[in-house]
Write a structure and sequence with these properties.
78% of the residues lie in helices and 0% in strands. It is an all-alpha fold and 239 residues long. The longest helix has 43 residues.
Length: 239
């Protein structure tokens, strides 16, 4: 496969990933009050989850599954972007791959763990002791699988990947400088937004809610990268 085909294939995958990952996200907003529901009491969350049935479980499953599409996209982008032999680019690519795995693990708890807890929560034979235990397990799973693995570790590595790609894009003939700076601009917003994660264990921690804005701008940036690779003139490609 020649360089042009690699560039085009990377553009297709990045564009498809960015668009497809928003489908389950939108469905969760419509059908599960996501992500405001995460701030609701445990019994309410689990009751609403159980009401969502199989459709909601599959939505979470495909959300986690589609997240793994970021792995081939990251690897292809790391392969075509120049300078290809930069050590930081290889490290950034590895961080992007690990980030995708961690975020998928965090999301998959909703497909394989939360359904069991929700069934116990709504079971008429469950007593108060059982429901108390369910609440404790839910909080532990949510804090460990969601906050630590999916959000903190996954997003931190994603930020590192974005910084590495931004630096590589500044040195690459495939992209214009403003495209690189757009991605780099999102990283402070994502970093500041992690104050919300620390606030889950440090109540007095000031929360700076910049994560939603940061991720919207980051997804627009990723989509622009994909589209630009599909439309890039052949004369700008280096063999």
């Amino acid at each position: 496969m020649n360089y042009l085909h690699q560039v085009r294939r990377t553009g297709i995958l990045l564009t498809f990933f960015t668009l497809s990952i928003n489908i389950p996200y939108i469905l969760l907003i419509q059908n599960f009050e996501y992500d405001d529901i995460l701030r609701e009491p445990t019994d309410y969350v689990l009751t609403q989850f159980a009401a969502g049935g199989t459709g909601l479980i599959l939505t979470w499953f495909f959300f986690g599954l589609l997240t793994l599409l970021f792995i081939p996209a990251v690897m292809l982008l790391g392969k075509i972007i120049l300078p290809r032999d930069a050590y930081y680019l290889k490290i950034a690519t590895l961080m992007g791959v690990i980030s995708s795995v961690l975020q998928s693990i965090g999301l998959m708890r909703w497909a394989f763990v939360i359904p069991l807890l929700a069934s116990l929560q709504i079971n008429p034979n469950s007593n108060e002791v059982t429901r108390t235990a369910v609440a404790v397990v839910y909080q532990a799973v949510h804090q460990y699988g969601g906050v630590i693995i999916g959000e903190y570790l996954g997003q931190t590595l994603l930020i590192c990947w974005t910084i590495g790609m931004g630096k590589a894009m500044l040195e690459s003939p495939l992209f214009k400088p403003w495209q690189a700076w757009w991605g780099l601009f999102t990283t402070p917003l994502l970093l500041l937004g992690q104050s919300e994660l620390l606030a889950t264990v440090i109540p007095k921690m000031p929360v700076i809610e910049t994560t939603p804005i940061g991720f919207i701008l980051w997804e627009i940036w990723l989509l622009m990268i994909g589209i630009s690779l599909l439309r890039i003139p052949k004369q700008r490609l280096i063999q």
